[in-house]
Write a sequence for this structure.
């Protein structure tokens, strides 16, 4: 069992966030929390066998809901990073870093009572965990704090961040005040994620640009309401009538909590295969439609056999996506909407991010889920008969070095360290394709990797 995540934070001793350092630490923790749910939801979605015919369902399928939630969680992480960039602290967080990549099983950060997060196949029990993750604060039972500095819920955690932004935007914050106008003059919006493709399934919005206190608070509101739902939202699951009024406004999309309620109660199921009585033949607990994948897979569990190499490739593909996100946040857009179309390096990275998720990460994960472990593959022989699965672990790309002239003294040079994730991923895939030829071909994963952005990412001093 893993300990508390390294990016977790506690309540400030003063009772509120009063410094930029405290605000930055909380926003970094927020980005980590949002990322920690992504592998868990993807693992459940990929474990479904029925993607081929669930598209004919009258309503949305469970798989569609899960993928939609994943994309919104990625958006939430982007919103937290957008706020970081807007307050001038964008360099404080890297998603491709060993401390930033969640491990499983592990307790969810900023939640009392403890809730363990695990990578498991889709089931009623796992969906209940998803509901507990997104449980609205109004529905949570009071819990006795282990320490007075603990956050009891994500709602309380984000409320502290909101109050911190409000306080730090006033002259009362003194030298810690966020100088929104001065920061906006630096065109920091050019470093924010705001125009990439987002799945409109379920009403997902485009990421918001953060330029002042008002837009920062609006970004945090999106995170809370898309996850838990608005205050007093108890999980609307009527498949015909629209969501209820919340205050004076009607919700235009279901919260994540509500989507999981719909899956749990079979409103959004696994397909439309009917039995002789006209009832759905399979549920999310039917072994006929869910792959029997291992819980919480790691490469350390597996001997040096081909499936282990496929799992390593999966980790590398996942970390390529994370590294590319970091590259996006380090690259300014050159397009402001006033010029005619022209090539833009950042836009290419944004499109590459989507291509990597859909055309590389998913096919590798799907192949793993369909691959049974053979006798002798697993070090622990008591595990039983199970299939493999994507571990979503940190993968260490090769650190490259190059000399760089400083320009201060003739002949003097410094050492520059950087990663080239696409090159490493392509080389690894070539090796694994020898064991899994389905990764090759004109439209296979190996070719898709060659089409991905080949970028360099500077190694932060702490990683070098």
């Amino acid at each position: 069992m893993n300990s508390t995540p390294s990016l977790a934070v506690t309540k400030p001793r003063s009772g509120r966030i009063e410094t930029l350092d405290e605000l930055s630490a909380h926003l970094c923790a927020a980005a980590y929390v949002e990322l920690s749910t992504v592998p868990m939801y993807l693992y459940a979605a990929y474990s479904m066998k029925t993607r081929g015919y669930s598209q004919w369902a009258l309503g949305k399928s469970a798989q569609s809901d899960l993928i939609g939630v994943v994309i919104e969680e990625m958006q939430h992480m982007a919103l937290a990073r957008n706020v970081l960039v807007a307050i001038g602290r964008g360099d404080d967080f890297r998603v491709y870093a060993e401390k930033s990549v969640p491990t499983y099983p592990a307790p969810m950060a900023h939640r009392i009572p403890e809730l363990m997060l695990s990578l498991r196949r889709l089931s009623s029990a796992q969906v209940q965990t998803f509901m507990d993750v997104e449980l609205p604060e109004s529905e949570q039972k009071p819990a006795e704090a282990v320490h007075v500095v603990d956050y009891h819920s994500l709602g309380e955690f984000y409320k502290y961040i909101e109050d911190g932004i409000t306080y730090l935007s006033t002259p009362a914050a003194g030298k810690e005040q966020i100088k929104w106008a001065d920061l906006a003059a630096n065109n920091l919006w050019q470093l924010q994620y705001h125009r990439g493709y987002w799945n409109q399934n379920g009403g997902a919005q485009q990421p918001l640009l953060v330029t002042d206190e008002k837009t920062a608070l609006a970004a945090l509101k999106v995170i809370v309401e898309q996850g838990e739902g608005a205050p007093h939202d108890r999980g609307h699951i009527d498949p015909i009538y629209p969501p209820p009024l919340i205050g004076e406004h009607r919700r235009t999309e279901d919260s994540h909590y509500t989507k999981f309620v719909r899956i749990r109660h079979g409103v959004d199921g696994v397909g439309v295969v009917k039995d002789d009585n006209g009832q759905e033949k399979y549920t999310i607990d039917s072994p006929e439609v869910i792959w029997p994948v291992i819980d919480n897979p790691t490469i350390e569990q597996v001997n040096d056999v081909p499936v282990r190499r496929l799992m390593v490739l999966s980790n590398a593909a996942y970390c390529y996506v994370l590294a590319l996100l970091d590259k996006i946040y380090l690259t300014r857009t050159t397009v402001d909407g006033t010029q005619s179309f022209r090539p833009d390096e950042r836009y290419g990275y944004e499109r590459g991010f989507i291509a990597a998720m859909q055309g590389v990460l998913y096919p590798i994960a799907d192949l793993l889920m369909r691959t049974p472990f053979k006798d002798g593959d697993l070090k622990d022989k008591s595990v039983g008969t199970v299939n493999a699965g994507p571990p979503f672990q940190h993968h260490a790309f090769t650190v490259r070095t190059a000399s760089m002239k400083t320009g201060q003294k003739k002949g003097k040079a410094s050492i520059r360290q950087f990663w080239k994730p696409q090159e490493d991923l392509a080389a690894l895939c070539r090796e694994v394709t020898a064991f899994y030829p389905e990764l090759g071909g004109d439209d296979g994963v190996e070719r898709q990797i060659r089409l991905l952005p080949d970028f360099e990412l500077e190694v932060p001093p702490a990683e070098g």
About this structure: The chain has twelve helices and seven strands. The mean pLDDT is 84. The longest helix spans residues 20-46. Residues 87 and 178 are 7 Å apart (CA to CA).
